[in-house]
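Sequence only, no structure available. Ideas?
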Amino acid sequence: MIPVEEMRHVTDFDEMDEKALEDISAIGTVMTAPAGTYLFHEGDHAAFYYVLKEGKVVLEFRQEDGSVLTETVGPGMGVGWSSLAGLMSYSSDARCAEASKFLRWAQSDLRHLFNQDGHLGYMMMKACAMSLNRRVAGKL
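Reply:
I predicted one. Tokens follow.
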């Protein structure tokens, strides 16, 4: 379980009411990982969605020509959106560039909760889309 207080200062959850925060926090966990840890690799089963609280994560996207594009993600950003979207596998590698702290949810738990509360599922997907938009906007 994630303490609700951990979620209050994350932009993605700003629009959620207290009940929604309690419901989503009840199925999540807080985890830490040292620098160099891979959260997942491209093609792995998309088992978890993460929101970075502290630290940095480097996403590594392999291109058809063999090159690798990277993107650094910081606090407040989501990682592993494939899991949140219900996809079967991740589309990149995710490596902790420094010691990091995450809020983490299992895809199976999210899917179950979203099937029970479609509005909460919508709010999470909207938050993910806004997070991705902030990341893209930062790249322009």
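DSSP finds five helices and eight strands in the chain.
Hope that gets you unstuck.
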